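tool=predict chain=A
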Amino acid sequence: MGKTPLPPRRDDTYAVVMELRAALAGHGITLPSLGRDFGTPALVILGNCNTETARALTTALERHPAHQSSPA
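tool=predict ok
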């Protein structure tokens, strides 16, 4: 049996932002306003992007099969 993932801790938000930034960069995509907010719970801010970036993100996602998530 697999472990049940724990909800992210507040200090994990920065790490998640950095991982997402690196993953996007691997596809040549930059979200300039990508960051974290400091509310409770801390959220990842995806922000706005131009049409070219949105298309690049869509293309990158379409090139890879969707991950199947197990029901909660």
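The longest helix spans residues 12-25. Strands lie at 35-36, 44-45.
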